[in-house]
Amino acid sequence: xxxxTVTIAASHGLHARxxxxxxxxxKNSGLDVTVAKGDGKPANAASILGVIALGANxxxxxTLTVEGDGAETVLxxxxxxxxxxxx
Length: 87
What we know:
Blueprint: E1 2-7, H1 16-29, E2 32-37, E3 43-44, H2 48-53, E4 61-67, H3 71-82
Antiparallel strand pairs: 1-4, 2-3, 2-4
């Protein structure tokens, strides 16, 4: 299991488009990935609704947890997505 806390860089936070891209990447990894905002309940990162429901805005910290073979590689990819403002 690999865990990392990252800061949301997207100027509009994890709204529909970045949440969709993030959830698709988590799903396509084939691993169990969760994301939690602060001390909140972890959400399934492969669920766009779960990701949007976090209400993560620019500057918020979220914790990613990835379980399975290759977890560090997937964690690097997903963390990179959140730490980049691609909009």
